[in-house]
Amino acid sequence: MDEATAALFPDGFEESALGLLPKGWRACAFTEVINVIGGGTPKTSIPEYWGGDIPWFSVVDAPSGTDTFVVDTDRYITETGLKNCSAKLLPVGTTIISARGTVGRLAVVGREMAMNQSCYGLRGKASDAYFTYFTTCRLVESLKQRSHGSVFDTITRETLASVSVVYPRGLEIEAFESLIAPVMERIKQNLLQAQTLATLRDTLLPRLISGQLRLPEAQAAAEKALA
Questions:
Q1: Which domain holds residue 144?
Q2: Are residues 71 and 155 in the same domain?
């Protein structure tokens, strides 16, 4: 094991409010290490705010329990709509957590998007992406334990501030990000490819059935889309 790798493994443990932690790690409030971003909704009575090219996330867009990324949304807003509400454009890699309605649903932003006020965007202060996501997964489990396994009905900024998390040193976070980022990117690309194939199916299958398109032409269209 080289010296740089060995440095990632603490040589002992220390007591903390959360029990024994590797030396150099610490227990802290969730909001001490993660920035919380609010969302917003443009006025639905103004058509010019809607139907643009900016994805607008709400809890209905949250991925299923086995998925991670969100790359498309049911509704889109315009630049004008974004400027005239409290929503912000969330960078790729931001974690979204639903705070009202169906509470505790998580998603990682796979393309820049805005979100409504029933969610929070979470960005690690160490400029990490996936460490924040997995830390938030643990936070949701902690909130469920507080509720004795039942569904909790809301998450506020105070809720997030009240939860303690284990936070490693910067070296460990950087090492984790460098290891996990290629895996997560592959997952995202697989999702995008699956969406492309679904769109092709919906577009080409009716034409194949009706005889408007022959199989070699459909195969060529699929190869071009996936190139």
A1: 10-168
A2: yes
Per-residue pLDDT tens digits for 101-146? 889 999 999 999 999 999 999 999 998 999 999 999 999 988 888 7
Q: CB under 8 Å to 4, separation ≥6 — which residues?
A: none
* Claim to verify: residue 191 and residue 100 sit in the same structural domain: no
194 vs 197: CA distance, rounded Å: 5
Beta-strand relationship, 106-109 and 69-70: parallel
Does 3 reside within a domain? Answer: no
Q: How far apart are CA 24 and CA 38, in angstroms?
A: 32
115, 87 contact by CB (below 8 A): yes
Q: Is-contact 92 71, C-beta < 8 A?
A: no
Domain for residue 4, yes or no? no
**Do 135 and 181 share a structural domain?**
no
pTM: 0.85
Write the pLDDT tens digit of every residue in 189-211.
Answer: 999 888 888 888 888 888 888 88
| Cα(93)–Cα(200) distance, integer angstroms | 27
